[in-house]
């Protein structure tokens, strides 16, 4: 039985070692054990609660919408968020505004 980890991308069990890298022959993904743990970025709201995909959040500050004169008001509830990499780490749809990207420091988990 092999002690090699499954592929983090496609979960294939047919991985092999190539020097310091692990390689998946099915999806051609290459990784190291160090990069596998670094990929697990933890996103927290303004109060330190850990956010996950599918969570519901509330906006805790009036936010100006870039390129528009409208404002997302404090207390606006957002359902089914998606976490993404980047400066704005929450991707969501807000009723009346459409698709938006938010920073986690301006929301709280419901």
TrEMBL record:
Pfam families per record: YjdM (PF03831), Zn_Ribbon_YjdM (PF08274)
Gene3D superfamilies recorded: 2.20.25.10, SH3 Domains (2.30.30.40)
Domain of life where this protein originates: Bacteria
Domain Protein YjdM N-terminal per the UniProt entry, residue ranges: 4-32
Start and end residues of each Protein YjdM C-terminal domain: 43-110
SUPFAM superfamilies with a match to the protein in the record: Prokaryotic SH3-related domain (SSF82057), Zinc beta-ribbon (SSF57783)
Family membership: Belongs to the YjdM family.
Protein's name according to its UniProt entry: Protein YjdM
């Amino acid at each position: 039985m092999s002690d090699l980890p499954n592929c983090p991308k496609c979960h294939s069990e047919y991985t092999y070692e190539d020097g310091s890298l692990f390689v998946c022959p099915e999806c051609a993904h290459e990784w190291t054990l160090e990069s596998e743990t670094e990929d697990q970025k933890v996103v927290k709201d303004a109060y330190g609660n850990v956010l996950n995909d599918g969570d519901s959040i509330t906006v805790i500050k009036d936010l100006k919408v870039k390129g528009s004169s409208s404002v997302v008001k404090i207390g606006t509830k957002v359902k089914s968020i998606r976490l993404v990499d980047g400066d704005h780490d929450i991707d969501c749809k807000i009723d009346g505004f459409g698709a938006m990207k938010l920073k986690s420091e301006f929301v709280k988990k419901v």
